[in-house]
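Troubleshooting entry. Yesterday's outputs looked truncated, so today I'm pasting the complete records for two proteins to confirm everything comes through intact. If either block looks cut off, that's the bug. Protein one:
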Amino acid sequence: MKKSWIAVLICSFILITACSSQTKPTSDAPPAVDAGTPEATYQKNCMNCHGMNLQGGVGPDLTKVGSKLGKEDIHKILENGKGRMPAQKSYIKAEDLEKLSTWLSEKK
């Protein structure tokens, strides 16, 4: 009888452990975007410093960057870097830099 209870306890422990270790989806995950879009480029290369919604973090807030800087200025900063921001021309293709500059310049 004692062995039966020990077996039940062990099985219960294993079941509870297995159920509690499942990962839950988080709402902090970035939304899915199509590859090749400026949004995808931003998520891959910029989001860590500028935040999931352009709100800033390590880097400045970009939610209204287009009202402060023109497309050419944004492109120059992306390409060559500025301050603590590294140049992105080694990491992002020229075509994608162009799309990203346009997209950011529309944030007003």
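Protein two, checking that the full record survives here as well:
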Amino acid sequence: MADNPTEGILEQLRLGVAKFELVSSPVASISNPNSQTFPTAFHRDSNNLFFARIGPPLGGGSPAMKKVERYSVQRVTGDGRCLFRALVKGMALNKGITLNSRDEREDAAFPLFFTNADDLRMAVKEVICDSGSERRQYEEALIAITIDESLKRYCQRIGRSDFWGGESELLVSTC
């Protein structure tokens, strides 16, 4: 391969051992993980940015690099609802929607899923506290709840906006 990094990347693309890809968040190029440069932004429209980069070698890559490709760190507002905020933000990202801090707090116009932390928290409350038939589907969550406190006390606490989510709420939210 050539001494020039750009020529090396072009050679990898020509040989089919690397691929060019568009990504929705600015992640460093896999071809040069030590580089501090990020991919070039392309405007699809005024609300969505896409970034171009060189992807991992075709047909492989280490398990650690595959995780880097798939996951990213997202900041959420830490106000006691951060677990629910993180879940909502992740659901939005999976649908190609980026939520800002205001969108996390307020009902954005995305009716296909829970649009804010309180909606998701109240959906968990509804399943665990208000519906005996649905509650039975989440036995592991009930066990985790009742180890620490009574179900009645839990149902009072989860109704408050400063309720901290944990294992039980993850079990209900992700099933």
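Both blocks look complete. Sanity check on protein two: Residues 117-130 form the longest helix (14 residues).
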